Amino acid sequence: MDYFDYASTTPMDARVLDIYREVAEHYWGNPNSLHDIGGSAKEILDRCTDTLASLFGVPSAGLTFTSGGSAGNAAALIGLSHGRKHLGSHIIIGGAEHASIHNASGQLQSAGFEITFIPSRENGLIDLRRLQSSVRMDTILVSIAHCNGEIGVIQPMGDIKEILRDSAALLHSDLVQSFGKWPIEEAIRHADSFTVSSHKIHGPKGMGALYIDPSIDLLPVQRISGTPDLPGITAFTAAAERATPMPDHYQMLRNSFFASLDSKMGKGYRVYEGPVGHQLPQVIGLAIEGIEGQWLMLECNRRGIAISTGSACQSGMQGIPITLKSMGATERDGKEFIRISFGPSTTLEKIDRLTDTLAEVRLSILSGGVI
């Protein structure tokens, strides 16, 4: 099967898998134990923490390994909000955030916090004017993802931080979709906390990391504890070291995809994308006019091609995707939406087969054929 759903998850790198097996077999001790077996495991854990912190350019003291991006987002929002409740109870959330952010914001609302959601503009960028007008004296936290997972728009983190400069609000950013795919130095420089995930960069599932500036107070209950998954942590660190953004390569594939699609079906589709310099090229959000995304996904699957209809973390939810809703799209737009995402196995030949399939299914619909 040709895989075009890399924004959802990635296969484990063979070298990373070898490292996972080696650590699981030879370093199975609990790093929290005081004997030598635990001590050997602790040395590896500390080395991984230092390595990942060095990759990010942040102090090791602020880095914690988590069970994934969603867990990290929840821990960050809940921990930071309760830790700063003495300063206020107002929180700002981007309308196109990952489902884990929206779920955590619901918990915070139940706990008495006030949440303001900031919509995106038609190009997917956060509405900076709305953000600026929403910041208040009692705003304690703002959460804006660096890169949207459904259409791949990169947010202007420097501009966002500038709006917050004179406020007491901290900035949390979900870097899950941009880490390893796009330069993240600017986002890290401006964020007080951020999350990343292993399975998006060919590492093991169930593993991620959360960074919170160590000078920020957190409630003790929100600090993540337990027995560390040392094989997962080591494999994740190895995957992070190997992750290299290749925007020029994926921009070439993106351009080839649209050139091929145009030649086979004209302009019978709509693209959801950001302006130049604000688009992750390997993520394509689009709608084929007149065809429901669910039907199209199933037809592609029947023909040996894997695409998606948006974030897998909300695929069981009904209604318009969060991102499109934030952009003001209609329910029909949401039903027609599909996401295509590229990875290392993506070739020009596979892209040509994909566009053949999309054009074939559309022609079948328009000619009254049965899907």
Q: Provide the CATH architecture of the largest domain.
A: 3-Layer(aba) Sandwich
Q: CATH H-level name of the largest domain... which superfamily?
A: Type I PLP-dependent aspartate aminotransferase-like (Major domain)
Helix and strand element order: EHHEHEHEHEHEHEEHHEEHEHHEH
How much of the polypeptide forms β-strand, as a percent range? 5-15%
| CATH fold type of the largest domain | Aspartate Aminotransferase, domain 2
| Total E-strand runs | 12
Describe the strand arrangement of the main beta sheet, using strand numbers: 2-8-7-6-5-3-4
Largest sheet: 7 strands, mixed
User: Poorly predicted ranges (pLDDT <50, ≥5 residues)?
Assistant: none
Task: Name the overall outline.
Answer: globular
Distance between the termini: 20 Å
Let me know the average pLDDT: 93
Report the structural category.
alpha/beta
Whole-number count of domains = 2
Number of helices: 13
Helix content: 40-55%
Description:
There is one protein chain. Helix 1 (14-26) packs antiparallel against helix 8 (230-242). The chain folds into two domains: 2-8 and 245-366, Aspartate Aminotransferase, domain 1 (Alpha-Beta Complex), CATH 3.90.1150; 14-242, Aspartate Aminotransferase, domain 2 (3-Layer(aba) Sandwich), CATH 3.40.640.10. With 371 residues, it is of the alpha/beta class. The strands form three sheets. The chain has a seven-stranded mixed sheet with strand order 2-8-7-6-5-3-4, sandwiched between helices. The chain has a three-stranded antiparallel sheet with strand order 9-10-12. It has a two-stranded parallel ribbon with strand order 1-11. It contains 13 helices and twelve strands. The two termini are 20 Å apart.
